[in-house]
Structure formats: structure tokens, C-alpha cells
Design goal:
- The chain is of the alpha+beta class and 203 residues long.
- 57% of the residues lie in helices and 16% in strands.
- It has a domain at 142-203: Nucleotide Exchange Factor Grpe, Chain A, domain 2.
- The protein has helices spanning 12-30, 34-111, 119-137; strands at residues 140-142, 155-163, 172-177, 180-182, 185-188, 190-197.
- α2 packs antiparallel against α3.
- It is found in: Cytoplasm.
- Homodimer.
Length: 203
């Protein structure tokens, strides 16, 4: 046996050096330099600001799209109403012409003295009723005025009838010519006789 010490493993100095070397990377990963942390925070804030701006822009575009759809729907409805109104005007013009023909047929029947037993009178009445039926199918309605208060919006007063009854004052007592309407539009006002109250002379 010689006097040299045993060298089976690394020396204490070598072990301490290896421990320090292995601990150094761990310490570097646990703590970043302040400049790098500030750059990360700045990038995070920038991305968050871009996200907020993008969401705001999406909301603006969504509202603009909704307004556009609303305007388009309103325009479509206006166009539909205008088309229907023009169709009603044309339908009313055609109806007014046909009603004049009905008036002519009514005059022909009145000249017969109310006798509709003859074939000619029956034929005239059939044509007259057919025209009125076709008009009613298109939405044309006859205005009911007899017995109601006189309304200048639906009738024209062509004659006056004196009445001693105050409750009949300004009421329609007879229809000279029938009036017709289409929906809320008066195609032809009725011509009527209106009662006028006059108090009886005192004896």
C-alpha cells in the first residue's frame, strides 16, 4: 500500500463547480430581464387594443348592415303600397266607366215603367246585374246613404225635402244616383235628396 489518497470519485471542488453550472440555467429561466418583460407587456397591450378596435369595427358594420336591411325593407314596402295604389286608381277609373254604363241600363229599365216581364227588359236587367256583380268582385262597394246623416265626403246634395220633424234634419231621404267606393277611395259620390227641418207655422 502506497501513501497516496484514494481518487475513486470527483473531488469536492469539481462537484461544487458542476452544481453551480447546473443551477445557473435554472436561475436564468426563472427571471427575465426588465427590458424583455416591458416588450412583452407592450406587445400584449397592442394586441388587446387591436382586438378592441376590431370588435368595435365589427359592431359598426353589423349596425350598418341592419340599417341597410331596414331601409331596403321600407323601400320595398313603399314600392308595394305605391303599386297597389296605382292599381286601385286604374281599377277605379275602369269602374267609373262601367258605372256609367250601369246608369244607362237603369234609365232604360226606368223607361219601361218597372215592367221587367218583356224579354228586352229581362235582357237589359241581366246585363246590368252582371256588370254590378263583376264590379263587386273587384272590391267595388255601393255606398249606403239613405236614412243616414248627410256626409259631403260621400254624397252630393242635388235636392232638398222640407220636413216638419227635427230628428230628420240633414238626413238623406232619397238616392238620385248610387255612389260607389273602392276600399277607402270614393270612386263616385252618391247624388241624394236631403231633408231640411222647417218648424210648422203656428196657427
Amino acid at each position: 500500500m502506497n501513501g497516496n489518497p484514494r481518487t475513486d470519485g470527483p473531488s469536492q471542488e469539481a462537484q461544487a463547480h458542476e452544481a453551480a453550472a447546473s443551477a445557473a440555467p435554472e436561475a436564468s429561466t426563472e427571471q427575465q430581464p426588465p427590458a424583455q418583460e416591458a416588450a412583452v407587456d407592450a406587445e400584449k397591450q397592442r394586441l388587446e387594443a387591436e382586438l378592441v378596435a376590431a370588435r368595435r369595427r365589427v359592431d359598426q358594420l353589423a349596425r350598418a348592415y341592419q340599417e341597410l336591411e331596414k331601409d331596403r325593407e321600407e323601400f320595398k314596402q313603399r314600392l308595394t303600397r305605391e303599386r297597389e295604389r296605382m292599381m286601385d286608381v286604374e281599377r277605379g277609373n275602369v269602374a267609373a266607366t262601367l258605372l256609367e254604363a250601369v246608369d244607362e241600363l237603369d234609365r232604360s229599365l226606368s223607361m219601361s215603367g218597372g215592367d221587367v216581364s218583356s224579354p228586352l227588359a229581362q235582357g237589359v236587367k241581366m246585363i246590368r246585374d252582371g256588370l254590378l256583380s263583376k264590379l263587386q268582385q273587384t272590391g267595388i262597394e255601393r255606398i249606403q246613404v239613405v236614412g243616414l246623416p248627410y256626409d259631403p265626403n260621400t254624397a252630393e246634395a242635388t235636392d232638398m225635402d222640407i220636413t216638419p220633424h227635427p230628428d230628420e234634419d240633414q238626413k238623406v231621404v232619397a238616392e238620385v244616383r248610387a255612389g260607389y267606393r273602392l276600399k277607402d277611395r270614393i270612386i263616385r259620390p252618391a247624388r241624394v235628396k236631403v231633408a231640411k227641418y222647417v218648424a210648422p207655422a203656428q196657427a
